[in-house]
């Protein structure tokens, strides 16, 4: 294994693509970014930024688009609101309002047109400035205690190249993800990625190990993305660029490793899983669980399957 620990800088920057239209949540997302939909009382994107900060990444670039101004407002100071809360001596809500603006240095760049995840990442090139960097997708929330991103950063520092998070999914779900062909390494939780296929048919998927929304990318990915033609769906796919890097030597931006993740992941990209996430987070909240959980049990027990729609 090539020792790259002294040739690459430590990851310090996170890129959060947030330019999607959120069509699966219309009409709620007609004027409100899907990233700002609340998980109980905090927008989903704040959990993502908190995860980056917990992993030691205090420089966060949001790749946004039209109608995303509320994301910028959320991570900015709200002086009038703060003053109103201070006048009421409402210290708890004042703390929660200021928390988001003090989390990290948050920067913004616009993705002019929705050309896929690979294009969104390419928009971060100037900000990243030749360093390895993390990419966190706002649709995926990772359990706060999992430490997945920090583990991926450590693997990248040790082995170089790029690192993806892999989670085993059911066979009928492989066509929803980018899937990896893998080889074992000397670490049982780390694999070498030999091939990547974006949303393969179930019968031809290289494995059941699917890429979830966490990446640590070598800066060479930008050069590959510039030369990557539109792939599945007519979009520039990050998976295609990583596939190219997987076959390269360390001095060319390769290889690609995967961290096998078996922890708690919340997929908020569809309505049903979003609702499940809200319920799970509410049940885990000490200030809500004592009243919410008993009510939830009573409500569930009272449902007659025969009365459910559909």
Number of helices: 11
Helix-strand topology string: EEEHEHHHEHHEEHEEEEHHEEHH
Largest sheet: 9 strands, mixed
Q: Helix/strand/pairing class, anyone?
A: alpha/beta
Q: Superfamily at the CATH H level of the largest domain?
A: Spore Coat Polysaccharide Biosynthesis Protein SpsA, Chain A
Helical percentage: 25-40%
Question: What does the model show?
Answer:
- The protein has 310 residues and is an alpha/beta fold.
- It folds into 2 domains: 13-169 and 209-269, Spore Coat Polysaccharide Biosynthesis Protein SpsA, Chain A (Alpha-Beta Complex), CATH 3.90.550; 271-303, no CATH class.
- Helix content is 33%, strand content 22%.
- The protein contains 11 helices and 13 strands.
- It has helices at 44-54, 69-74, 79-87, 91-99, 117-122, 125-128, 148-159, 221-226, 238-246, 271-283, 286-302, and strands spanning 13-17, 38-39, 42-43, 59-64, 105-110, 133-136, 140-142, 162-168, 178-184, 190-198, 209-217, 256-260, 265-267.
- The chain has a 9-stranded mixed beta sheet with strand order 5-4-1-6-11-8-12-10-9.
- α3 (79-87) packs antiparallel against α4.
- The longest helix has 17 residues, at 286-302.
- The protein is globular and about 60 Å long.
- It starts with 12 loop residues before the first strand and ends in an 8-residue tail after the last helix.
- Residues 1-6 have low confidence and may be disordered.
